[in-house]
Write a structure and sequence with these properties.
Helix content is 46%, strand content 20%. The chain is α+β, with helices and mostly antiparallel strands and 120 residues long. It has one domain. It has a four-stranded mixed sheet. The protein is globular. The relative contact order is 0.22.
Length: 120
């Protein structure tokens, strides 16, 4: 089982620079709540980085273009999917992510959901 995190952003250095500028100039209108939870303006948040490293769950991170190029699927972004074998299932959708206040809340919700999954 893997968790796939798909940010509501495109890949590339130019896009990253535009995203940084957007976060600085108008953070309330930035369109990726998942990015806002897991990253500061320039870097991944320390609590998030530690959680990903210690969770014991394989986590893959994608921008929209990377995800759609690999999986060919389109969703309403951002979102988190659970991949088991060939199956992709929603783990947390855009609206749920938007309702989370901080990175600690995201971590708690992910841990709670992981505990509720049936053992393989």
């Amino acid at each position: 089982m893997k968790l796939l995190f798909v940010y509501n952003a495109r890949s590339g250095k130019t896009r990253a620079a535009l995203d940084i500028a957007h976060k600085i100039i108008s953070p309330s209108t930035y369109s990726c709540d998942l990015c806002s939870l897991t990253h500061g303006i320039f870097n991944e948040k320390i609590a998030w980085k530690e959680f990903v490293e210690k969770s014991g769950v394989e986590m893959l991170f994608y921008h929209i273009d990377e995800f759609e190029g690999k999986y060919g699927s389109k969703f309403d972004y951002p979102l988190i999917l659970r991949e088991e074998g060939e199956n992709l299932e929603p783990f947390m959708d855009k609206d749920e992510i938007a309702g989370i206040e901080d990175v600690e809340g995201l971590i708690r919700l992910i841990e709670k959901r992981l505990k509720s999954l049936p053992l393989a």
